[in-house]
């Protein structure tokens, strides 16, 4: 009995999991898995996942800044949405409790104009989540949210 690599990784990569993108334009950026497609479909014949991530993160905030300035600095976030091969994402131990399934409709990703609207919705969700990190229920999800919005240091 022998395991293929994809079934092992698919067990780890579930929706809500924070991953690091390894290949392509968004390499080194963090993303959240929205949906996984295990055996592929007609146009992508490999296991892949739909991810929503941050192309450009929020700017640095210090304690001395006013509420208005903090809000302005958090508006610099720029999201991305894309399908990625599971071999090109690195799953982390963190999980985030963002409900992105409603925000990211797969039918909307086909056309460029509707994809812009999806990104605008994502930006709003990410900003709200970033500004209200204290309101997270479980400690594990709070850690995941905190990790997701920090810049990757390596």
Automatic annotation (TrEMBL):
Residues 12-39 form the KOW domain. Its main location: plastid. It comes from the Eukaryota. It is found in: Plastid, Chloroplast. GO terms for biological process: translation. SMART domains: KOW (SM00739). GO terms for molecular function: structural constituent of ribosome. InterPro entries: KOW, Ribosomal_eL27, Ribosomal_eL27_KOW, Ribosomal_eL27_sf, Translation_prot_SH3-like_sf. This is KOW domain-containing protein. It comes from Minutocellus polymorphus.
């Amino acid at each position: 009995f022998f395991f293929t690599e994809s079934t092992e990784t698919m067990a780890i990569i579930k929706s809500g999991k924070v991953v690091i993108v390894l290949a392509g334009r968004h390499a080194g950026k963090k993303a959240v898995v929205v949906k996984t497609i295990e055996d592929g479909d007609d146009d992508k014949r490999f296991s892949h996942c739909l991810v929503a991530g941050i192309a450009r993160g929020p700017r640095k905030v210090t304690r001395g800044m006013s509420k208005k300035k903090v809000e302005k600095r958090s508006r610099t976030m720029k999201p991305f949405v894309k399908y990625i091969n599971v071999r090109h994402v690195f799953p982390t131990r963190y999980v985030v409790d963002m409900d992105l399934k409603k925000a990211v409709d797969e039918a909307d990703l086909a056309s460029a104009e509707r994809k812009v609207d999806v990104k605008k919705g994502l930006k709003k969700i990410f900003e709200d989540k970033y500004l209200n990190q204290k309101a997270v229920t479980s400690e594990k999800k709070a850690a995941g949210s905190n990790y997701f919005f920090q810049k990757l240091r390596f």
